[in-house]
Design brief:
38 helices; 37 strands; lipid transport; magnesium; transmembrane
Length: 1098
């Protein structure tokens, strides 16, 4: 049996407390996740059963169930479309939450099931669906449906056009019925999720490293003590003194077992050097600190009534360590809204102002440079009205030509598209004159591209209104007059041509080709029109970050059209090389064009996106954009949001077909980067090329990426986004990554990154639910990182170092005491003090510090993103800093012990009756000095004082004295020993003891103060420099929140110097004034600041 030097309760109670608090905290967060999961899994859905619709939960859907989905609802599983409210069995779907594309996609049912539009008819359906095994590819699906009708089996192929993906949303269709083929974790959306792993912050990893070091110290101290004990007992007089004779059993016991038991006893005696309570304090700090994010009004979005959410509080400090930000584009950087801004018609540039086109500069027939207004065509009924109502000075002939040019341009915009109109909302439109002011109430456009929708809506505002199409007829109203164009052919958009075309027959019988596409693909094919002027205008639009398209047309003779029609028919019915033949025919058709002009559309960015990205760059954070969108769209948005600069050399890794081709291209890019050391580089890579690069050439690809200021990956599948982040995470530098997105397609990368942030946007809540943090807008990322992340990291880094420091101070005197008690394992402190040191006497000051500390003003942190660099790479928890705190702890412990020993230990006349101090009095003296010193050390580290800090700091010292007087002043009947009875009272009755306490506390802290003075004067950090910045010529600010006037007394000057030494201030000194020109926020309403804030100057 091993005789333990301390009570089991002394060691067990802190451990039990730590485990209990941690379990409660983790259980609470798991419960919140459980509630969030139930919202999705418990959503009500309608299923066809027994001839009727039955309501069930989405988690209960099984393969083979026929599900009804209504307009604007989200598909609860992967469904094969059976029928819709339309006769042709088609429906429209937006997959923005899956692949980031906001355009509408058309899906169709097989003819045999499309006619089954009622529940009763569907209940009679007998069919078998065979399909491939579940796979993650969103765009790939193969299967077949065998339908039994009148004892006959009909087999129909199924492709991606028949599959409605879980997470997509039904649009422009009243309702659909579909049969579930993949459910639960077998759906394509779920297969694109990455299995969620437990995330651990860099601080936790550092804590574990430090714990291993302290465990080595613990074992070393125990081994040294055990060896010295047996060395000491080698002499017989010390092995068995006359007052402590051994029993016969002790004399005959095994030496090895005795050595092991003594070693274990020393482990128990010194085990308090391992700060078990550190874990519960860290857990409390993270849990309570996470509420500040939700309470911060600067992270509240008033329009959507959304505040920031914390789903995982374990990563708060990781927000201060981010080195890479991976962001989605659609819905994260942008608002998912396209707006028509400008256009160029026949060499004249126009912009839209209040629904009217305004020309910039002189018109073709005007020498004046003032703005000229062109009245909307919808308000014009004749030429004279145009001449009188506009400021163009034109002759009647020129006026007619002008109308023709604008009319033809906007007709091209209104006809060359794939836009559809809600059938529900077009019933009220008749053949009478149409007024543009009624457009929003009567027409709802749905487009396969957001650009097309914006252009068609703009044309409607200017009087050329696309009313709809029925079969092959496209209806357009110009000046209230309805015109019907027969749609002959659509030449679909493809990434190689980068343009689309339509061939229509005008009411007059003319065959017209309208072409719309990128300027690089349209202008070379033009032989007429204002080509040079338009090219200049397009470049000007692009410099503004606008998305540009050029419009052109061509008129065919009857003979030309017959030749074109024949070639198209042959190419489209070819069984071999169909794509190549179609490309050749398209090229034959789309030539000899007459240029009409160009359009400029803005993909509306979220507020302050450009400023936020620039601030991230200044903070040393690299920003990557990962999107499923097209290359041209993504690059355009990158330019407009400041991710790419116009001065950057944009490198492209696109459309790579093989490993060798990809390797050669990467080599070329690497050489270009090496040869040019001045220009900043940006890299654009698509999904297929990325797959090849990651397969065989990871090192080369990473080398190229590291030398690029910005990287943009387009056409990315959800799992590819996660792979890119994984690649960066495991690179040699091991950087901290952050992923931010708003759709289900972003969930994988959010889970893969060290920190995942979901945007509570328009693409559902999948990203927000699976993220660690959720915010309403991208701009909030700056405050989340630069302020909250900075504070959390500084607080917890100091908390960790301080805990190790105070435990070294606590146990080292116990180790030194063994040299004076023959290593008998006698404790220096009473067991109650051992138990309460970390739980009560020293726990609250560091906990409050870790919640409320603001070493620099939040506004300064946000306005100076470069300060973020000072805490990157886990600098505050470096081995150098750790060794400093540990050495400080050992030095203070030596002062506690030997100071008490030499000042008090040998003096026999300290008590009035001549009684000597006993070992309990000596231990209590050491303990008293220690409690006061470590608490005062925490006060020195505190910069931002509130009444709560004062209460817990000085209250902790007061509580220790009151408790000790109470504990030692009463004979407690339930205690087996009364060692501490009257000890503390006797200690405090000695003037020498008070002198010793004051002297030792001052000695310990004086060394620390001297070091702070030296560092601040000769080696100040950027943060310390920012604390000492002058706000203006009449006000001196010693700290970011401590302001003093020019005229101050001598005493104030001394106080000012002391405040400067410890870099601290009191809220009573604080007053702030914010400028309306501040780049991010005009005020700081953060709950982080627990002091009042004046609007006046200091």
């Amino acid at each position: 049996m091993i005789d333990t030097p301390t009570s089991p309760v002394t060691s067990g109670l802190p451990l039990f407390f730590v485990i209990t608090v941690t379990a409660i905290k983790q259980g609470y967060e798991d419960w919140l996740r459980h509630i969030s999961d139930n919202e999705v899994n418990g959503a009500p859905v309608y299923v066809v059963r027994s001839g009727g619709l039955v309501t069930t939960r989405s988690k209960n859907i099984r393969v083979g169930d026929i599900v009804r989905v209504a307009k604007n609802e989200i598909f609860p599983a992967d469904l094969v479309l059976l029928s819709s409210d339309r006769l042709d069995g088609s429906c429209h779907v937006t997959t923005a939450s899956l692949d980031g594309e906001t355009n509408l996609k058309t899906h169709v049912a097989v003819p045999e099931t499309a006619v089954l539009q009622t529940v009763a008819n569907l209940d009679t359906l007998i069919a078998v669906v065979e399909c491939q095994q579940p796979e993650a590819d969103l765009y790939r699906f193969m299967g077949r449906m065998t339908i039994t009708q009148q004892m006959e089996e009909i087999v129909r192929p199924l492709g991606p056009e028949s599959l409605l993906l879980r997470g997509a949303r039904l649009k422009n269709t009243k309702e659909i019925f579909g049969v579930a083929v993949y459910t639960g974790m077998e759906t394509k959306m779920a297969l694109n999720y990455k299995s969620k792993s437990q995330k651990r912050s860099a601080v936790e990893k550092s804590m574990n490293t430090f714990l291993i070091i302290y465990l080595i110290i613990l074992i070393s101290e125990a081994i040294i003590s055990t060896i010295l004990k047996y060395t000491w007992q080698a002499e017989e007089k010390w092995d068995e003194p006359w007052y402590n004779q051994k029993t016969e059993h002790q004399r005959n016991s095994s030496k090895i077992l005795k050595f092991i038991s003594d070693f274990l006893a020393f482990l128990v005696l010194y085990n308090f050097i391992i700060p078990i309570s550190l874990y519960v304090t860290v857990e409390l700090q993270k849990f309570l600190g996470s509420f500040f994010i939700g309470w911060d009004l600067d992270l509240y979005h008033e329009e959507s009534d959304e505040k920031a959410q914390v789903n995982t509080s374990d990563l708060n400090e990781e927000l201060g360590q981010v080195e890479y930000v991976f962001t989605d584009k659609t819905g994260t950087l942008t608002e998912n809204e396209m707006q028509f801004r400008e256009c160029s018609i026949n060499g004249t540039k126009y912009q839209e102002i209040n629904g009217r086109l305004v020309s910039e500069g002189p018109t073709p027939d005007s020498s004046e440079g003032n703005l000229s207004y062109l009245t909307s065509l919808s308000h014009v009924n004749n030429l004279s009205h145009l001449a009188a109502g506009s400021s163009f000075r034109t002759s009647p002939e020129n006026g007619t030509e002008l109308i023709k040019e604008h009319d033809l341009f906007f007709k091209a915009v209104s006809l060359c598209h794939t836009v559809q109109i809600s059938s529900v909302q077009t019933d009220s439109i008749g053949d009478g004159p149409w007024q543009s002011s009624f457009a929003p109430a009567q027409l709802e456009y749905y487009a396969s591209s957001p650009d097309e929708k914006a252009l068609v809506e703009a044309a409607a505002r200017f009087g050329v209104v696309f009313v709809g199409n029925s079969g092959e007829i496209m209806e357009v109203k110009t000046l209230g007059k309805l015109e019907r164009y027969k749609l002959l052919h659509i030449l679909e958009f493809d990434p190689d041509r980068r343009r689309m075309s339509v061939i229509v027959q005008a009411p007059s019988g003319e065959k017209l080709l309208f072409v719309k596409g990128a300027e690089s693909s349209v202008l070379p094919e033009c032989i007429g029109g204002e080509i040079e002027k338009t090219k200049i205008h397009v470049d000007e639009f692009a410099l503004k970050g606008l998305r540009t398209l050029c419009m052109a047309y061509r008129q065919f003779t009857s003979k030309e059209y017959e030749e074109i029609n024949r070639r198209l028919f042959e190419a489209r019915t070819a069984l071999q090389q169909r794509e190549e033949k179609l490309a050749g025919v398209f090229q034959f058709i789309e030539k000899d064009l007459i240029l009409l002009g160009a359009t400029a559309v803005e993909d509306k960015l979220q507020d302050k996106v450009r400023e936020t990205i620039e601030a991230l760059r200044m903070a040393g954070i690299k920003v990557w954009v990962l999107t499923g969108d097209k290359h041209e769209t993504a690059v355009s948005v990158s330019l407009s949001c400041g991710h790419f600069h116009r001065t950057m050399n944009i490198l492209e890794l696109l459309n790579q077909k093989s490993d060798s081709e990809c390797a050669e291209k990467l080599g070329q890019l690497a050489r270009r980067i090496r040869e040019d050391h001045v220009i900043q580089h940006g890299l654009v890579v698509d999904g297929t090329s990325l797959s090849l690069a990651l397969r065989e050439h990871e090192k080369l690809f990473m080398d190229v990426c590291r030398h690029c200021s910005a990287v943009m990956c387009c056409r990315m599948a959800p799992l590819q986004k996660a792979k890119v982040i994984r690649l960066i995470k495991i690179s040699p530098e091991k950087p901290i990554t952050l992923a931010i997105g708003d759709g289900a397609n972003d969930v994988s990368m959010i889970q893969e990154a060290h920190v995942g942030i979901g945007i509570m946007g328009k693409e559902g809540r999948q990203a927000a639910r699976n993220s660690d943090y959720a915010i309403a807008r991208f701009k909030f990322l700056s405050k989340l990182l630069f302020v909250h992340g900075h504070f959390y990291y500084i607080r917890i880094a100091t908390l960790v170092q301080y805990f190790f420091y105070k435990n070294v101070c606590f146990i080292t005197p116990q180790f030194l005491y063994q040299f004076y008690c023959l290593f008998s394992q006698q404790t220096l402190y009473d067991s109650v003090y051992l138990t309460l040191y970390n739980i009560c006497f020293t726990s609250l000051p560091i906990l409050i510090y870790s919640l409320l500390e603001q070493h620099i003003d939040p506004h300064v942190l946000q306005n100076k993103p470069t300060l973020y660099r000072d805490i990157s790479k886990n600098r505050q928890l470096s081995m150098k800093t750790f060794l400093y705190w540990t050495t400080l702890g050992f030095s203070h412990a030596f002062i506690f012990f030997f100071g008490s020993y030499f000042l008090i230990g040998k003096d026999t006349s300290l008590l009035g009756n001549g009684q000597m101090f006993g070992n309990w009095t000596f231990g209590t003296l050491v303990f008293t000095v220690m409690v006061i010193t470590v608490t005062a050390k925490m006060a020195l580290e505190t910069h931002f004082w509130t009444w709560i800090n004062h209460l817990v700091t000085w209250g902790s010292i007061l509580f220790y004295f009151v408790f000790s007087l109470f504990y030692g002043g009463i004979l407690w009947p339930f205690l087996s020993s009364q060692n501490m009875y009257f000890v503390f009272i006797q200690l405090l009755s000695s003037g020498s003891a008070w002198f010793a306490i004051i002297l030792m506390v001052f000695t310990c802290l004086f060394l620390d103060i001297v070091k702070k003075v030296f560092d601040r004067q000769f080696h100040p950090t950027n943060i310390e420099k920012a604390q000492l910045t002058e706000t203006n010529s009449s006000i001196k600010c010693l700290d970011s929140m401590c302001c003093f006037s020019e005229g101050e007394t001598a005493c104030a000057s001394v106080g000012r110097m002391l405040e400067r030494v410890i870099g601290r201030c009191s809220p009573s000194h604080v007053s702030r004034s914010w400028s309306a020109s501040d780049p991010f926020y005009t005020n700081d309403r953060s709950i982080l600041t627990l002091s009042t804030m004046d609007s006046s100057t200091c």
